[in-house]
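for the recovery benchmark. tokens below, seq after
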């Protein structure tokens, strides 16, 4: 008799072929055969307390490692609980696979337990969504889903596997099991050579160029190419999203606080791996007089919401390397002449920094949020992965916190999802146990997925969590006050005064409460030294709002 294999074991073999070494999951009867297969294949099973966390962790795993993450959830509410995590990965261009259970094919349309049209729900927020129709096709469909994750700009895929398909056993020689490394082609594109030549000419003649290095710089692992580009051509660089940390703080080409000025005064603006979405004012913040170049993995993003002068579809690293090489022979002394432009931007940068500095050193009580994020920035090491999960408090941090290494900044991305922090910390520490992981939460954001602090304790994943606690959803509160007046400012956005440090201790971690700004740094040091998952609950002034909160157009 020929050897047989179950659908769940075929899933595990396909995951192993893709290099998946951990899955994030919450158990359910529809999916347990996958667990059995993972045990045999040496794939670790991390079980969380909410499926949203599992999906966010798979997203976070992808961002940290550059390899697709995987979450496995049961049918019905298990899959719908994971929708937010998949949607966040979709907007953030993060490749991951969600596998959902489903009722047996033999019970199709009969009203089986937890039966829902998962594929229909997932199709708009994935690059690929399908039902596995037979056990023989299980591994084949898993490999297909991973392949589709990398079509154009990366993103998530979804597979549902009916229970009888998953549990059934088929002859091993009848199942298609794609061989590792043999079912996906390289998707790296260098870009149109003629467009590269045009960009080189623009760089050679620009007097006041600047470049924005967005998340795709990290997605493409293009750090070295980006650094070589800005240094060889003497171009001031701004960074956003996962692109933060491409250049270290203090690098002469690293700029942060003068971006609006640069976008107004520059004659050449190069946007790499960032769409013209709300974060960019839909492109309207760029000077109409400037020549605008956009480089992106996805042709649909190039020129969306704003006309451009040159668009290049391709891998950020390959495009920047090719452009730098093409420009090197024709730039002459243009790079040296940009010193005045660099000095002009540095003066704007310095002025903005000095204006804010008194608040970063404020001894006010309640604590000024600027003091908190200043202390965090000073606390970071070159090996600290920083995660932001919140509204107003994380908006403060975006102005001050500067990761010291590439790939050491994580935020939800353009969907603006609260609740990613615990899952991202989990994935980051699991994937990179050699790194310190620090997450800044708003108290509202922490409340959404904070119970998975217990998962961090259970799997011994130490990290430093900081809650900027103002007992409010303060970003929304500001908008309501601005729009409806102070008398209606606290409708639906005020939280209880929760001592999250005590919550951490209750779940077996390290916890502290901080109300004095002088105690922030000592508390962070104790959290680091504890070797445990830790929460430092810092009580910040609820009457202070970040400039980014006050400038949001939705309230105007």
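predicted aa per position
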């Amino acid at each position: 008799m020929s050897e047989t294999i179950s659908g769940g074991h075929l899933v595990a073999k396909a995951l192993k072929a893709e290099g998946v070494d951990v899955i994030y999951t919450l158990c359910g009867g529809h999916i347990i055969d996958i667990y059995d297969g993972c045990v045999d294949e040496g794939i670790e099973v991390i079980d969380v307390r909410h499926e949203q966390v599992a999906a966010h962790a798979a997203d976070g795993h992808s961002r940290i490692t550059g390899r697709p993450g995987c979450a496995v959830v049961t049918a019905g509410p298990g899959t719908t609980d994971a929708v937010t995590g998949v949607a966040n990965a979709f907007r953030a261009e993060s490749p991951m696979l969600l596998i959902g259970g489903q009722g047996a094919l033999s019970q199709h349309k009969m009203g089986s337990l937890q039966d829902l049209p998962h594929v229909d729900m997932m199709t708009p927020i994935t690059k690929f969504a399908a039902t596995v129709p037979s056990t023989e096709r299980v591994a084949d469909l898993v490999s297909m889903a991973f392949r589709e994750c990398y079509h154009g700009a990366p993103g998530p895929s979804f597979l549902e596997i009916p229970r009888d398909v998953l549990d059934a056993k088929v002859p091993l020689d009848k199942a298609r099991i794609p061989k590792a490394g043999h079912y996906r082609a390289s998707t790296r594109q260098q870009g149109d050579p003629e467009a590269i030549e045009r960009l080189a000419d623009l760089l050679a003649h620009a007097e006041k160029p600047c470049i924005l290095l967005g998340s795709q710089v990290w997605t493409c692992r293009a750090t070295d190419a980006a650094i070589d580009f800005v240094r060889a051509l003497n171009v001031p660089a701004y960074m956003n999203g996962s692109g933060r940390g491409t250049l270290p703080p203090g690098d002469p080409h690293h700029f942060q606080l003068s971006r609006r000025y640069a976008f107004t005064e520059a004659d050449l603006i190069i946007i790499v791996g960032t769409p013209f979405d709300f974060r960019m004012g839909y492109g309207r913040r760029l000077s109409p007089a400037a020549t605008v170049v956009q480089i992106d993995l996805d042709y649909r993003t190039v020129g969306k919401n704003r006309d451009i002068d040159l668009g290049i579809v391709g891998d950020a690293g390959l495009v920047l390397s090719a452009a730098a090489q093409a420009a090197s022979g024709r730039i002459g002394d243009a790079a040296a002449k940009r010193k005045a432009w660099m000095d002009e931007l540095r003066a704007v940068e310095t002025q903005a920094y000095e204006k804010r500095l008194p608040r970063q050193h404020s001894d006010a009580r309640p604590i000024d949020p600027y003091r908190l994020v200043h202390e965090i920035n000073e606390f970071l090491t070159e090996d600290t992965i920083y995660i932001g999960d919140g509204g107003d408090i994380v908006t403060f941090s975006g102005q001050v916190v500067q990761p010291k290494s590439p790939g050491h900044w994580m935020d939800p991305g353009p969907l603006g999802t609260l609740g990613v922090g615990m899952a991202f910390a989990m994935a980051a520490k699991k994937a990179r146990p050699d790194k310190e992981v620090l997450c800044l939460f708003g108290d509202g954001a922490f409340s959404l997925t904070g119970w998975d602090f217990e998962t961090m304790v259970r799997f011994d994943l130490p990290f430093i969590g900081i809650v900027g606690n103002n007992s409010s959803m303060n970003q929304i509160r500001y908008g309501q006050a601005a729009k409806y007046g102070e008398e209606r400012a606290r409708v639906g956005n005020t939280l209880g005064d929760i001592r999250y440090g005590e919550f951490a201790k209750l779940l077996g971690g390290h916890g502290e409460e901080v109300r004095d700004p002088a105690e922030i740094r000592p508390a962070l040091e104790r959290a680091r030294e504890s070797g445990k998952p830790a929460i430092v609950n810092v009580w910040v002034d609820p009457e202070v709002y970040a400039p980014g909160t006050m400038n949001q157009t939705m309230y105007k």
